[in-house]
């Protein structure tokens, strides 16, 4: 049987079409479908974590309220502003890619990476304060108030949820940095910027997830 000739990806202004696709439109459709399926699985994953937190909080409302008041609201608020800003810079990067503005694309992606690194650095400082305050379960947890075991359970969930989210931020930073290097080599064009677009969707999801993490862990019990 005749086989379809393998077509190498093109760059430098042309539409890069991988050999398994018939044309650029088919490739773009497949990429969009793939990223949305992946994002759906991520939503389900974090949905399970949020459900576990909600169920446990309903069972131990006083202890979880006490634990929430021990979290570092100023640092978490700063990180919220950092991530929201990074969503803006990522969106501007996608806009630059769509219009073939290579230098602007590289600049916006670089700024997004920097903001992501700032988020992780602030989170590391927050974790250090948690350690100094003896709020790390199993390692160094001390709480003199009532329901100490339930307050410790809050911090188990707190560290797990924020830790998994931070891991997703780290993965996003790596993806965006890779895309920035590709952009600096003039791989993308107005006809082909799908990797920038799908990476931006992932980064926006990471930011949206934080918009759920922030209120349930830091804000709800402070009213």
Explain how this protein is built:
The N terminus is likely disordered. The chain is elongated and about 65 Å long. A two-stranded antiparallel ribbon has the order 1-2. Helix 5 packs antiparallel against helix 6. A hairpin with a 3-residue loop joins strand 1 and strand 2. The chain is an all-alpha fold and 223 residues long. Helices cover 74% and strands 2% of the residues. The chain has one domain: Four Helix Bundle (Hemerythrin (Met), subunit A).
Number of helices: 6
Count of extended strands = 2
CATH architecture: Up-down Bundle
Total number of domains? 1
Radius of gyration: 21 Å
Write the element-wise H/E pattern from the N-terminal end onward.
HHHHEEHH
Question: What's the mean pLDDT score?
Answer: 89
The CATH superfamily name is Cytochrome c oxidase, subunit III, four-helix bundle
What global shape is seen?
elongated
> What is the structural class?
mainly alpha
Examine the coordinates and then state which fold CATH places here, giving the name of the CATH topology: Four Helix Bundle (Hemerythrin (Met), subunit A)
**Range of strand content:** under 5%
Amount of helix: over 70%
Strand line-up across the major sheet: 1-2
What's the level 1 CATH class? Mainly Alpha
Question: What is shown here, in short?
Answer:
With 223 residues, the protein is mainly α. It has one domain (24-218): Four Helix Bundle (Hemerythrin (Met), subunit A).
Sequence-ordered SSE layout with sheet pairings:
Layout (H helix, E strand, L loop, with lengths): L23 H36 L1 H9 L3 H26 L3 H31 L2 E2 L3 E2 L6 H37 L9 H26 L4
Antiparallel strand pairs: 1-2
Helix pairs in contact: 1-2, 1-6, 2-5, 3-4, 3-6, 4-5, 5-6
């Amino acid at each position: 049987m005749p086989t379809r000739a393998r077509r190498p990806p093109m760059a430098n202004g042309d539409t890069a079409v991988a050999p398994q696709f018939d044309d650029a439109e088919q490739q773009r459709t497949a990429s969009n479908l793939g990223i949305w399926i992946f994002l759906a699985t991520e939503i389900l994953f974090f949905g399970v974590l949020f459900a576990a937190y909600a169920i446990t909080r309903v069972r131990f409302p006083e202890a979880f309220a006490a634990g929430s008041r021990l979290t570092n609201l100023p640092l978490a608020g700063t990180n919220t502003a950092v991530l929201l800003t990074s969503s803006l810079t990522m969106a501007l990067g996608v806009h630059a890619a769509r219009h073939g503005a290579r230098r602007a694309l590289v600049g916006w992606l670089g700024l997004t990476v920097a903001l992501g690194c700032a988020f992780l650095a602030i989170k590391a400082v927050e974790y250090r304060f948690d350690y100094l305050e003896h709020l790390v379960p199993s390692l160094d947890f001390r709480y003199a108030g009532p329901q100490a075991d339930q307050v410790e359970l809050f911090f188990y969930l707190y560290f797990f949820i924020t830790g998994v989210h931070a891991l997703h931020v780290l993965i996003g930073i790596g993806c965006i940095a890779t895309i920035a290097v590709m952009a600096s080599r003039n791989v993308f064009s107005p006809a082909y910027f799908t990797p920038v677009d799908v990476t931006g969707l992932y980064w926006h999801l990471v930011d949206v997830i934080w918009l759920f993490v922030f209120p349930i862990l830091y804000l709800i019990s402070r009213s």
